[in-house]
Amino acid sequence: MLASTSTLPDEKYLAYLLPELEIFFKNTSTITFIPYARPNGISHDHYTRHVAQAFSKIGKKVKGLHEYKDPIAGISEAEAIFTGGGNTFILVKALYDLDIIKPLKNVIQKGVPYLGCSAGSNIIGQSMHTTNDMPITMPQDFKTLGVIPYNINAHYLDPIPHLKHNGESRETRIKEFHTYHDTDVIGLREGSYLEVIGADIFIKGPHSARLFQKNQETKEVTEIAGKASDI
User: Fold this and answer.
1) Of the residues 4, 118, 121, 127, which is catalytic?
2) Residue 127 catalytic?
3) Where in the sequence is the domain holding 180, given as residue range(s)?
4) What is the model's pLDDT at position 229?
5) Model pTM greater than 0.85?
6) How many domains does the chain contain in total?
7) What is the CATH number of the domain that holds 41?
8) Residue 133 catalytic?
């Protein structure tokens, strides 16, 4: 499950996803949490406690990956994994520094349930090039897990007509990305998420998504996208 955001306005952390997560993690007792994106610079312990409080509402325990002496073993032994949002540059740097890019991809491809929110969703794509985050640190590489053959732009916002704003829209930024890269990009609006089962990608939630492809008109993608290769 790859969500645009963990929190909707006027709701508590993960509240809008908890009914689905109870089903998604039904065969799981403990979720291994990857806290490295550190939103607002909070500590790994603080972030993990925050996540644990949310998951306790559906009877799940949470253990932070930073609590393991060997993070590779922590990934390999995980029943399920959640990577929280924050800054994608910080997250990806940590994944490379700890040498867990390949182990994380391997367990996901073996079928370990994976939840990502925001930055945690970004890393499932081909690269982090379409993140919205400030480059406050430099990862070893911009390549990410490549579990799906797309990039994700979380928190996607449509251009607002007549807005007096001289900065670029998300659509403009993604078109700039396509002057250098060929990877298709999914613009994922707040409150919606992707459910990936094998090669199938389903768009869930209240909104459709935007599909950006190089040298093609942008498409509005409805709830069920079908095969990953044919989204």
Assistant:
1) 118
2) no
3) 2-230
4) 45
5) yes
6) 1
7) 3.40.50.880
8) yes
